[in-house]
Amino acid sequence: MPTFDFAAPTTLAEAVTLMASAGTVRALAGGTDLIDQLKTNRRNADLVVDLKRVPELQRLGSDADGLHIGAARCCSDLHHDPTVNRLYAGLADSTGLVGSVQIQNRAAVGGNVCNAAPSGDTTPNLLVHDAIAVIAGPSGARRVELTDFFVGPGQTVLQKGEFLQELILPAPPDDSASAYLRFIPRNEMDIAVAGVASFLHIDPATKTVKKARIALASVAPTPVRARAAEAVLEGKVISASLIDAASVAAVESATPITDVRGSAEYRKELVRVLTRRTLNICLDRIGVSL
Length: 290
Ligand SMILES: Cc1cc2nc3c(=O)[nH]c(=O)nc-3n(C[C@H](O)[C@H](O)[C@H](O)COP(=O)(O)OP(=O)(O)OC[C@H]3O[C@@H](n4cnc5c(N)ncnc54)[C@H](O)[C@@H]3O)c2cc1C
Prior knowledge:
The chain is an alpha+beta fold. It has helices spanning 12-19, 34-39, 75-79, 82-87, 89-95, 101-106, 109-115, 123-128, 227-233, 240-251, 264-286; strands at residues 5-7, 25-28, 47-50, 60-63, 66-70, 132-136, 142-145, 150-152, 155-156, 163-169, 176-183, 194-203, 208-217, 224-225. It is 32% helix and 24% strand.
């Protein structure tokens, strides 16, 4: 392991000052990505700033803006949180899939987002809930829609000195639900060959789709919204054939590569299948039958 300085601030102001230090400064949440990256020289650091002791980054609670998820809050806390399970079920699904129980006890959703791996399991679920990223930095705080947060594999809009403070997920309306499924070749401890998060808001009287969101993991350089599939659904009466049409349309948003985990064609087929399945889970969770 290369050597680096280490700091563990306990206030947001202290964290902002430390993150703006000269040299290469890395934020640390759970460290399940960062420590391995440092050990294998895929990342370097002059200073590592542990953000877990900063209260704002451990926040988990709702107000008029929606659900606030502090960037260092671990996956296990979200997976077991009653509000997350009731209102943001796809996020509960995905935080229970990251690695193993031991990994979930350390790994933060904020770490998953800032690592910016296309395969990150929690990110598509934040996208389908229209998450806002609150970014802290030396020039103050700024807000960015999470759809605009990712620049490329491992790259985000965060500038020198900036770090993710929290994610805000607006409260979803009644008669809505989300769901996440991924495909891996074994039961756990693997990276998604493809993953799909879906969100539906349905008018129960007419079964019309009032809002649809679909987001994909592991099939593009960044997590992506499947906007063509969303457009197929919105404003239409939900049916099995509409879900099939949306699932086919979701493939249009996938630009996967072929690698050891799967071919591009296989990944596209997974997108189609997982989109259909997650949309059906959303309907089950809302209590709407076809
Ligand atoms: C055995 C194993 C299994 C895994 N399985 C999965 C899996 O199934 N699905 C999955 O998606 N991932 C998986 N991962 C990857 C990893 O666990 C997740 O990406 C995790 O959510 C990272 O969170 P963390 O808190 O540990 O991040 P860290 O390692 O602390 O940080 C990750 C990156 O984000 C940066 N960062 C962290 N917090 C902030 C912040 N607040 N602001 C700015 N930058 C920040 C760090 O500098 C680093 O570059 C696995 C990892 C291991 C070791």
